[in-house]
Amino acid sequence: MRLKNRRIIITGAGSGFGRATAGLFAREGAALALFDQDEKAVAETAAMFGGHAYQVDVTDEDQVNRVVSSAVEALGGLDGVVNSAGIMSSASFEDTDPASWRRVIEVNLTGTYLVCRAALPALRQAEHATIVNIASGQALLPSLTGCSYAASKAGVMMFTKSLAVELAPSIRANVICPGASDTPMTQKVLPPSEVAKRAALAQSYALKRLTEPEEVANAILFLTSSEASAITGIAMSVDCGRTFH
Ligand SMILES: NC(=O)c1ccc[n+]([C@@H]2O[C@H](COP(=O)([O-])OP(=O)(O)OC[C@H]3O[C@@H](n4cnc5c(N)ncnc54)[C@H](O)[C@@H]3O)[C@@H](O)[C@H]2O)c1
Known about the structure:
- The protein contains 8 helices and 7 strands, in the order E-H-E-H-E-H-E-H-E-H-E-H-H-H-E.
- With 245 residues, it is α/β, with parallel strands linked by helices.
- Strands 3-2-1-4-5-6-7 form a 7-stranded parallel β-sheet, sandwiched between helices.
- Strand 2 (31-36), helix 2 and strand 3 form a beta-alpha-beta unit.
- It binds nicotinamide-adenine-dinucleotide.
């Protein structure tokens, strides 16, 4: 029960890493407020693991302020935030039009900023508060395509490091850079039918496989728990060795 009595908001909780984190955090004793723009998906996560479900588009400042305020009231305070809501673009620079560029930056970077901003007053009331934001291996090492995604995730990384400096010592802020994982996000760009491409991707990593959502959730748990009480401002790669060489 490493998160006993901890009250946590998780965004992107309807799928992938967010859902895996909700399951693990619930088992570790946390009280959860689960955010996602997909109302049905986030309700499913709440039905599976417990917690309060909220439908919200993280790019909408008014909606974010409203649901964070409702969540803080429902939980009776707030000890942590995990920002996992995100969208992917694998378009090349030449194929990235301004509308798609803006949307990727809005969801991944501005959405993370808006949720942190709305949560800050409640986090300041907590004894040991934490923020864990999900960037990507592409914040550290770009792929052949996907410049808007890489730029948004590099922004999430440096935004989080800035928070670690500004909000210390009362709030710890860390960022995770996951490698490719077999979540619905990846399945959209690399469907299970693309067996050869998936195998080649896995072979390009030191551990010769993709990262499991639960492995990312374990890292989020560690950084949120008091076991990481001396850790702030780090970018932790959880990527089967994608970025270290
Ligand atoms: N899956 C990977 O391989 C991978 C690798 C590195 C980083 N990431 C990052 O991890 C995070 C989670 O990815 P995932 O694989 O779980 O993706 P996913 O698509 O399975 O889940 C993302 C969730 O975010 C929600 N979401 C999207 N836009 C939103 C918005 N505007 N407001 C509220 N909710 C919104 C979606 O509805 C979805 O439930 C993302 O930030 C992603 O960029 C994923």
